[in-house]
Amino acid sequence: MRFLLVEDNADLAHSVADRLRLDGHAVDSAGSLAEARDCLAAAPYDLILLDISLPDGDGRDFLKAERRLGRDTPIIVMTARIEVSDRIDVLDLGADDYVTKPFDFAELEARCRAVLRRRGTALQTVQHYAGLTFNPLNATLSVGAELRELRNRELRLLEILLAAPERIFSKDQICDRLFSYAESVTDNAIEVYIGRLRKKLEGSDARIETVRGIGYRLTSG
Amino acid sequence: MIRAPLSLRLRLVLQLLGIAAVLAILLYFTVRTVAEQAAETTQDGVLGAATLSIAERLQGGDDGVGLDLPYEAFAILGSISQDRVFYRIEASGETLTGYSDLPMPSETSATVVPVFYTVQYRDAEVRVAAVARTVLVARLPVQVLVMVAQTRLGQDAIAQRVANRAAALGVGSFMLAAALSLLTTGSVLRPINRLADAVGRRGPQDLRAVDHPTPAELRPLITALNGFIARLRGALSRTETFIAEAAHHIRTPLATVRARAEIAMRQSNSEETRETLRAVIRAVEESSRSAGQLLDHATVIYRSDRLVDETVDLASLLMGLASAFEPTAELKDLAIKVSGTDRPVKVQGDPPLLESALRNLLDNAIKYSAPETQIDLALSQDGVCARIEVLDRGRGLLGQGQSRLTGRFQRGKNSTDVVGSGLGLTIVEEVALAHGGRFELTEREGGGTCARLFLPLG
After folding, report:
1. The complex's ipTM?
2. Does B274 sit within 8 Å of A110, measured CB to CB?
3. Are B51 and B146 a contacting pair, CB within 8 Å?
4. Do B255 and A180 touch (CB under 8 A)?
5. CB-based contact (8 Å) between B266 and chain A?
6. Quick one: B223 and B319 in the same domain?
7. Do A162 and A100 fall within a single domain?
């Protein structure tokens, strides 16, 4: 996905952009509303991540203006003040959703996905691999003519593996991305999901290989 | 040692009773004096008439003063009471008849109008009327002094009766005044008591200005009280602003730390480093959650003293929240099932507070649910109350009481592996109480927790 990140705190902007790029997203960063307008004029974006307090104005005014001008690129507001009234406010002004800083990137991604799914305006969503057609927005996997639904954790597991086929991911690496840091997971919890995903991949050339003592990888053939 | 000043009621009652007592005593003496004078006047009238009628019968003659004592005059005197009657008729220094030792008037001026005086005679006090009359004896004028005396037993008896009546009157009027003064005290003090009641009835977090109708005399007190309340509210609001600011300033760097830690974790292959980074991320999560809930809690405290009273449709609120939490729940493959929201359920309340309470309940349910289970959000009403149930298939309460879990900064003993601040349920309970509702936390049949929020229907 292609993100426009509007955030004036350089440290945070940098970190968030880097973090999103790790998941394979394209991110442009704008430090002010003026820069954001320039970026929007130059390229189309799947999603705008918008901070509220910016040096040249209030993010909410930007939000209002965008909507008034009929531009409907999905906007997710990032707030640090989490007063309930603020949250309701931004939704009324036309934001698609909001996240509170510091955000869980898995949750941010889930919210982005939910917004794009609702809007149905994503630029590029479908991925192909070894006879599979994977649509992360709809959480579906097609093998031939058969459409299979993926649960969220199966979907994210497939995303992880599909981002770098043939690469070996350790159990820990997968766990860290699949489970929230706020919950504790047992070591073999991951095996359950690997098992399920294998079932969903049946009939295609793609398969998940266990690399003993190291981890898993997605491979074909 | 400083003694507490007398109560206003006691003061007023004592002073009013004092005044009533003085007035009653004055009344007693006045009535007595007036009555005694009236009795004396009556006796004097009768005595005077008797004396005059004796004097009338005096007749001059050649050989002396002739006297035909009119016994009916004595009869009149005697009929009044058991009083004894004395008389003396004196002419030219010689007692013609009667009691020669009956004292003469101090002033011997001859007068046809009776002179009255009181003297001690024969061990009794007597009232004497004296009349002088001139008769001709052997063609010469001779002054004859007629004195009639009467003991004062009858008059004393009357005086005694009157005194008794006056005393009864005094006591009666004192009692009446006492009763009236109690009533007056009550009615004078009623506005003060009402004000005290109105202020006393307030909840511990009610910081609205006192606008109870009060008499002018109490207004300075109310003004001072309201000034004090306003200062307190100002202090609270500054605290809230401070917490909000603090939350803002803590959250932004935390977001950076978290993003950086996640990046480092992705790039690190050392298990030790990853373990450290995991701990960092957990700590970040914990502090941001605490900051959020501290702010929520401050907001609840701040808002519950002046509840915004709006009509809130719980059905649409619940549906909105359920869809807002869906992506979060999805991460654990949790399904949120909402029921009972097909028609509006309206309560009166403060929308941000109600949202905050429900958000905390949902947040808890998601945190503690086992993956791939269902969270039920059920809305219902029973004519008096709206009931919101949040049911999860989490770890349940493990026998811990609700009061322990809703205490401030208290967390369940089975929750050490889940990030939390221990304020969530406190917030829910406070919001329920602020709206006149209640909050129940019970073990769910078949495992999990059942949280019920009851709110009075609007």
Report:
1. 0.84
2. no
3. yes
4. no
5. yes
6. no
7. no
